[in-house]
Design a protein that fits this description.
The protein is mostly beta strands. The chain has two helices and 13 strands, in the order ββββαβββββββββα. It is 5% helix and 38% strand. The two termini are 23 Å apart.
């Protein structure tokens, strides 16, 4: 497993090794022992699978607050998407900053999004699937979000030459300046 640190402490890009032959490939997208040896010790309890029919489908920026905050390991099962994590840990030197990575079936990359970060993605091609593992169960009372086009965050979303498709919840999300984060930064 290739593991790359990003500019945001805790957010990592994981690329599993693929073993290919004439039939296709095999890879371990998650191996608890291998990742523990790399200092990543997470107990995933829920897998989610999302399918978007159109390029330009945007979901996010979401988080789940304590006591049900979630670490997420995100990958693309089919198609291609731009996956984003935004630091919302109060006191963090990178508060409000973001990283984004193109995840696709072809590149096999995964984004590890820890607790204390917003998460969102934009599909770049039709018929895109996103698959992600979570360390806590979905809890509606802890569900929240910040607006995907917040000018203070200023995410450089790729141009998909299509109208962005959003849920009403995501369109109505608040701005970062109006958000009181439940997450505190701590140096480890």
């Amino acid at each position: 497993m290739d593991i790359i640190e990003t500019k945001l402490s805790g957010v990592k890009i994981l690329t599993p090794k693929r073993f290919a032959d004439s039939r296709g490939f095999f890879c371990e997208s998650w191996n608890k022992n291998v990742l523990a040896d790399a200092g990543i010790e997470l107990d995933f309890v829920q897998d989610n699978h999302s399918f978007s029919t159109k390029a330009g489908t945007l979901r996010g920026l979401h988080f789940q607050s304590p006591p049900h905050a979630q670490d997420k390991l995100v990958r693309c099962g089919r198609g291609e998407l731009f996956d984003v994590a935004v630091d919302i840990r109060v006191g963090s030197p990178t508060f409000g900053e973001w990283v984004g990575e193109i995840l696709s079936f072809e590149n096999g990359k995964q984004l590890l999004v820890p607790k204390g970060f917003l998460h969102g993605f934009l599909t770049l091609v039709p018929d895109t699937e996103i698959i992600y593992k979570c360390t806590d169960f979905y809890s509606p009372e802890c569900d929240g979000g910040v607006h995907w086009s917040d000018p203070d965050i200023d995410i450089k979303w790729p141009d998909v030459s299509a109208e962005v498709s959003l849920s009403q919840k995501d369109e109505d999300a608040i701005l970062l300046k109006d958000f009181i984060s439940p997450f505190k930064y701590s140096e480890k």
